[in-house]
Here is the input.
Amino acid sequence: MRCPSGVVDVTKFDTHSAPLFPGRGKADAAQATTAIRSVLDDLQEKLYANFRGDETPVPGAPPKPKASVLIVLQGMDTAGKSGIVSHVLGLVDPQGVRIRAFKAPTPAERRHDFLWRIRQALPEPGMIGVFDRSHYEDVLIQRVENMATPDQIEARYDQINAFERELAASGTRVIKCYLAMSKDEQKRRLLARLDDPTKYWKVSLGDLPVRLQWDEYMKAYSVALSRCNQDCAPWYVIPSDRKWYRNWAVAKILSETLQDMDLTWPPATFDVAAEKAKIQAS
Here is the structure.
């Protein structure tokens, strides 16, 4: 699911495929995702325990790297960003997760460069951070809507790459997920919202104007994935026409990322035998 290097065209991605899925389809999705849950739960707790518990240094032990994970979710409306938050991040302990949904910048945020508000929301050590939209909005919507000059947009790709290299160097694992959805599937989902009174709250009158600019957004995504796809902060292309596969795929990528971090339980920072003796005598 890694986005290929070089120039890419997001319209060429198969949004209905299910690469690497270990079952036959939706009927096996629940079991496959449950299998990942036990792995995710253990690894996320180790991440949290190492950096959010007793921070008393162990004598003679080397300093711990400030490890964390950042998941960036980008996609067109209805692609499933909130669904991933519910169904994937819901598999782990919520106290170890921080979610930030980026909307239009506030007046205070506009007084700073575009990465300022992003830096304020980065996950602390031991945490999994989730960005529902991100700094990429500044080379997506701002490009399509001409909210910044071409020179400003061009400069931002290099700024994003430098920022993500900085994150990786500081110990943050960056997982960027492009939720690839077809235009027909988006139409179906938007209409389904209008057919269901319990989904009216999700309807935005801005959905249609954005949909009418679909081709321009596909061009903007193609450039962003082509220009900002470093090994230290790779893009993953998640076929998202089928929700069950989308959720499994992101859970799989997160679990493999955590496994690659070689997490272990933190050693005791105290004399275990002495503490046992105190409790026995109490």
Q: What stands out?
A: The chain has a mean pLDDT of 93. Strands lie at 68-75, 97-101, 128-132, 172-180, 235-239.
